[in-house]
Design brief:
Helix content is about 40%, strand content about 10%. The protein is α/β, with parallel strands linked by helices. Helix 1 packs across helix 2, helix 2 packs across helix 3 and helix 4 crosses helix 5. This is Pyridoxal-phosphate dependent enzyme.
């Protein structure tokens, strides 16, 4: 809510107040929670479609003292376009928040392999991740976004890309309202 007008600010998929808010608020918020918990999240996993959330996190966390990986799991099924969007938005956001340096290509990671052929259509790994997460963690995730990013996280851990000693922060961005539209397949 905007403090003076009490009107909601909508977070959209571009270089907007939403991306800047993610860049400037998420990293201090996470740092505070890390201090309270006595942990450092060396890897952050987030679903990536339009790129603004992922890009805001990349830019925001790039200004911290300790390096960490911010891994975006593509759910768009348009990987090249998504990579380009994330890079463009992250670099512009870094400039707007005064990062003071250019973001390197190695800081912008969008991983593919879990989106399937079409946006919004769950694949086998999506449904398996949804079931596993619900059964083991009691966490409800959707088949469009979080189901795909969780499938990616599970595979990255199984394959050793994310090691057993890593501390992973999984960014759950919502999506549960979509569950009703998919009731016949989940």
């Amino acid at each position: 809510m905007r403090p003076r007008t009490r009107r909601a600010t909508f977070l959209t998929a571009s270089i907007t107040a939403g991306t800047l808010a993610l860049a400037s608020c998420r990293s201090p918020e996470v740092e505070q929670q890390e201090q309270e918990l006595g942990v450092f999240f060396d890897t952050i996993v987030v679903c990536t479609v339009t790129g603004s959330t992922h890009a805001g996190m990349i830019a925001g966390f790039a200004g911290q003292q300790r390096p960490r990986r911010v891994l975006g799991i593509d759910a768009s099924a348009t990987i090249d376009m998504t990579r380009g969007q994330v890079a463009q938005i992250a670099r512009h956001t870094a400039e707007l928040i005064g990062l003071g340096r250019d973001l390197g290509d190695d800081e912008i990671t969008v991983l593919e392999g879990w989106a399937g052929d079409l946006y919004g259509i769950p694949v086998k790994s999506t449904l398996e991740a949804m079931r596993t997460t619900a059964q083991l963690e009691g966490m409800i995730i959707d088949p469009v976004y979080e189901g795909k990013s969780m499938a990616g996280l599970i595979d990255l851990m199984r394959e050793g890309e994310i090691g057993p000693d890593s501390n992973v922060l999984y960014a759950h961005l919502g999506g549960q309202p979509a569950l009703n539209a998919y009731s016949g397949i989940i």
